[in-house]
Please model this.
Amino acid sequence: MKAASMNAHPSLVIGQPVEIPDAAAEPEAMVRFESISKTYPAYRGKPGVDALQGIDFAIARGSITGVIGRSGAGKSSLVRLINGLEKPTTGRVVVDNKDISALTGRELRLAQRSIGMIFQHFNLLSSRTAADNIALPLEIAGWSKADIKARVAELLDLVGIADKHDRYPSELSGGQKQRVGIARALATRPSVLLSDEATSALDPQTTRAILDLLANINRELGVTIVLITHEMSVVRQLAKEVFVLDAGHVVESGHVADIFTHPKHPITQSFLAEVTGDSLPVSLASRIVQEPGSHAVIRVQVRGAGAGDTLIARLARELGLDVSLLSARIDEIGGQHVGSLVLGIPLGISGGEGATTRTLAWLSQYQFPAERLGYVA
Amino acid sequence: MSPELINLIVQATFESLYMVGIAALLGTAFGLPLGVFLATSRKGELFAAPTVNRVLGIVVNATRSTPFIILVVAIIPFTRLIAGTSIGSTAAIVPLVIASTPFIARLVEAAIREVDGGLIETASSFGASPIQIVLKVLIPEALPGLLLALTLAVVSLLGYSAMVGAVGGGGLGDLGIRYGYQRFMPEMMLAVVVVLIALVQLVQSAGDYLARRVNRRLRHR
Model:
């Protein structure tokens, strides 16, 4: 964004839906943050908070994009900026070529109908049935009764709970409630679906089913999905691209596979550790000592497609060692293998370290990051 | 008890029901919007107007802390202005409405504040206007609480209505004082008390029943 075009920008005329002239330059962006900062002023003795700073990125049209961060990283502020519930302190948020941060009142409410949102705690009205909950945004948008009825039936079908039409939320399971939430969010045919920790209150199996449903919706309806989460597994299963948020800054971004196979920022590495399990099994950890025993314990990081497939076999063959596998955890992220192997390397009869040294040298030659954890008796 | 006396009781019961019924209707008509506003007008809320909120809060508290019998006497000129007279059941409705409106407003405020704030955010996120949020989210979600609040208001009004006898308002309280106390007819006093107890029971049961019926939150748990 050039400073010159910024000055004369029509978005400064509040209340007008603004077509962004340079949208053609980036036609693929559905959500664009332009030099966003968000500061909450000091209030009643609480100090002010800089929730977001220097946020500048775009979310591609039709994509499933993850925004991952710990609590307090600024995720909630980010979502609330996208759907216009909050205004940025500086910069602007462009959603579907409309400067949502410049809209107010009726114009804003109209724009919000093209942004659906699902919530961690579902936020269904307890006084309405599943069907009537889904109907709510349509009633608000002023649809006719007949149109609402047809659309609701369609949506219940889409999310696979047509039989729950007349059930109240208190009669539904968590997964069913979230399906109602998804149907409600899609009711007005939005172009963006914001998912704010939508699976955090669900068990792993239900989480998978809901994520599958979201993937289908993305594929069939072409809805851009923004996944806000603190769970690595959610991003890994669904997103192609990810933005890592920490203390109000985007610290890392890119393709999920790249980011998580070669994490640079400590926060990203800590998210990855949740999946790859850098922590050792308790039974093994308790056996590791620092005085030489029968085997040295080496942990090898495995990253990349097919990486590590033949690692043990080659190591054993090329170095002529009886390598033992003490623990292993390998996962797949975007087609890439990510994980760690914990190997036992036999020490010489007199306790010689030769085999260990050769192993570490061999591993570094093939660019497997490795470290010695200690010894086992 | 003679048929004349029974007739008196029946007549007084209808007077009481008339006063309480109209006062409850008008009290709700004024108290419900006032209560919704009180619940949604603090800083950062739906109809944020912190100063107006504070001023209304003070007025409501002042009205509520004035003893009812003093309120009745103090506003006699106002009552005359509205009702054309300061005597009789119709005139008595004026102070009853003035006393019940702030009471209902506070109960409504409490019931509305019980609604999960996440629902307001949800409705806003799909473009609901503040009025739509009140009508489609806050009031329906608070309905069980609102019905219980209204029940409590009617029961209190029955108590208040017994006091307006002091200014010629008629009704059961008036009957109890004039016949039971001033004419030494303990059976009349007893009859009045029994009818009042029966009315309160009836109102409370009906209110509880309705509140339970509309409450979908706790079903099937």
Q: What stands out?
A: The mean pLDDT of chain B is 91. The domain at 20-169 of chain B is CATH 1.10.3720.10 (MetI-like fold). Chain B has nine helices and no strands.
